[in-house]
Amino acid sequence: MAVAAVMALALLASCGGGGTGDVASSTGSSGDSGGVGSGGTGSYTSGTISGLGSIIVNGVRYSVNGAHIEDDAGNVLTDTNGLGLGMTVEVSGSAAVPSAVAGGLATASATVVRYASALVAPIEQGPDSACSCLIAQGQKVTYTATTVMPSQLRRGDVIEVYGRANLGDRALAASRIDVVTDGRSLKLAGFVPATGGLDTTAKTISVYGPSNPPTLGGAAPLVLHYSRADQVSALSALAEHGLPVRVWFDAQGQLQRLAVDQPLVSDRDEARVEGRVTATSRSERRVAISGSWVDASALDDATLDKLQVGVEVLAEGRLVKGTLVVSHVHLDGEDDDEEDGAEGGLQLHGKPENPQAIGSNQGTMVLRGVTVLFNLSASPSMAQLNVLQCVEAHGSGFDSQGRLVATQVEADDSCH
Question: What is the pLDDT of residues 3-17, one digit of tens each?
Fold first, then answer.
């Protein structure tokens, strides 16, 4: 089997990777022993968090109570409040149970959640309102009204970007941008090319960013220096295959940690992966989603014809030895009710905090750390919000102040 076929299912979506060594070929700390049984029993999904309370990823509401939660470097998160809208994650859990309510979300219990950003770097140019973009570590980062981000960003801010590559724009399409103030290492998820990626004489490694893979004639790579002798063999094996990686480094360009991206688990009965089509091979009936090949042999010709480069898809099937065997795909804009619930978009479930009226017909409150702007005439009253234990809010995007603009707010019988 080609090495590319067993790489992380969503490298460019910034899921996968991890490991605890300075140089690691990592499957995460959990592997296939995450508590949902052996032989592939359970579910796996890789995508963006679109709802909080539990977490909603790819149309499945996962309870995270008791789940093992870690980042792509293997650091364990002990507080589930650290999971936020727009983060890109992998989830391994129980089988998803369909909702008994029409248009409702399937539910499952997560055993392992791994979250991973694609970039940590200072802003070099922008933000530019004309293109809704900025440049950091040489990477073009784009954002939209659905991107979770601060209301103001400035040149020089160190940011952490979650998202996936949009190869048409040669950009990293951000689903979430945070300002980093804790002095952590810089980071980039990308590729080391098979040719010229490693220079053992100069002791350098060249990494192309997520929106600039070398196969597309990527721009100048990030060149990092390494010093430890025990890194040479690992890097040599890496460069031989041109595997996807994520690297941590300092401001002087010194490599601190490197991990080869691998899926969180290798076998699951149910698997869902979201991303953009980045390559196709009709003769082999394979499609690359966010840079990683999946087995599309079960799809009919008409469906394969729709899977053109750049198309946004949600692919469903089984995870077999790290490869997604696709049984069905949802194209962007199709089957929204089924995948996202009847209301779609972003969802928040929790206890309303600090509800207050602003103007004659608008109010704000905080849910799960997110400020929500809502219409008073179509929502519970202020008096009700002050006593309700749990509410549910739906929205399709954020305003210029970073507030989620609610399309629906209602009382909920659970905050999860």
Answer: 333 333 333 333 444
